[in-house]
TrEMBL record:
Subcellular compartments: Membrane
Domain DOMON stretches: 1-85
Keyword match Transmembrane: yes
Protein name: Cytochrome b561 and DOMON domain-containing protein
Gene Ontology cellular-component terms listed: membrane
Pfam families to which the protein is assigned, alphabetical: Cytochrom_B561 (PF03188)
Signal peptide location: none
Keywords for the protein's UniProt record, in alphabetical order: Electron transport, Membrane, Signal, Transmembrane, Transmembrane helix, Transport
Length: 298
């Protein structure tokens, strides 16, 4: 039985009870630092146990855990992770569970409800939407104005479509994150604050699109500077929040490797495109009109 901050097993503190091969009852607190066996640490955790001894009871196929906690502040709605397995722990090291579920226990009302949605899948969807929107489509869309400006007006339409689609996907990720917060009351103010900040910047970019002045307007240069830098800042904080979300979500190495590879590809593409653009500019400046002579002969 794990007490979780976000409805997930990783990062929670749990009380685990079992009957060993000799018929003796055992119960310990564990800190679930990660998903690997070595990261499930016995006799560690954040549960404030009292001096009342914890116990395990067995009645047929049912096993009961009894323990007493005393929190400093009153709990409201608390995600509780329930899991079971049939393998005996070896030297207090647990094997992987066979099944689990998450319930919401309302301590203020004394009621219990099974989570109506799969919180784990919601978190995965939140991360997928964030990576696709902020980590893939929006960065790619930002490349077109800088490196395809000579393809007028194709670059403008492609850029607009990419950024609008990326904004919609990123917005969906924020909405899903807000729904997750309402369900599990996850307390990650930095991740939430950066997400809101990046969303506000992206909304300002959408508004700037509709207020885009003509090329002949005097404020067009200032608008360009504003649009470019607000977009870059938004992309930076979007990437930062993806990394932070992968960390606090306890995502496995697959997520880290996947996003690291995606980010690396984008960075390499920027370096290559920037080098090609620099070479084109250098070639233009060094190429001179063959009819022009420094010392014409009369």
């Amino acid at each position: 039985m794990g007490f979780s901050k976000d409805g997930m097993m990783v990062g929670s503190s749990a009380m685990v009870g079992w009957i060993n091969t000799k018929g003796h009852a055992r119960i310990k607190q564990y800190y679930l630092q990660g998903s690997k066996q070595g990261q499930v640490i016995p006799d560690k955790g954040e549960l404030p146990l009292t001096g009342v001894p914890a116990s395990v009871g067995l009645d047929g196929e049912m096993i009961y855990l009894a323990f007493q906690l005393k929190f400093q502040t009153q709990l409201a709605r608390q995600p509780i992770v329930l899991a079971f397995g049939s393998s005996y722990p070896k030297n207090s090291h647990l094997s992987e569970h066979e099944d689990k579920t998450t319930i919401m226990f309302d301590f203020s009302a004394g009621s219990v409800s099974v989570a109506s949605t799969d919180i784990g899948q919601m978190k995965k969807n939140h991360g997928i939407l964030g990576i696709i929107g902020w980590g893939l489509i929006l960065p790619i869309g930002a490349l077109f104005p800088r490196y395809l400006k000579h393809k007028e007006p194709l670059w403008y339409y492609v850029h607009s479509v990419f950024q609008f689609v990326g904004f919609c996907i990123g917005l969906a990720g924020v909405v899903l994150g807000r729904r997750l917060y309402n369900i599990i009351q996850a307390d990650f103010p930095t991740h939430r604050g950066i997400g809101i900040f990046a969303l506000v910047l992206s909304i300002l970019q959408i508004l700037a699109f509709f207020l885009r002045p003509n090329k002949e307007a005097k404020i067009r240069k200032s608008w360009n500077v504003y649009h470019h830098w607000v977009g870059r800042i938004a992309l930076f904080f979007g990437a930062l929040n993806i990394v932070l979300g992968i960390h606090i979500g306890g995502a496995g190495s697959d997520w880290k490797i996947g996003y690291g590879f995606l980010l690396g590809v984008i960075i390499v593409a920027v370096i290559v495109l920037e080098s090609m653009a620099w070479m084109r500019r250098s070639k233009k400046t060094t190429t001179m009109d063959p009819s022009f002579q420094m010392n014409p002969v009369e």
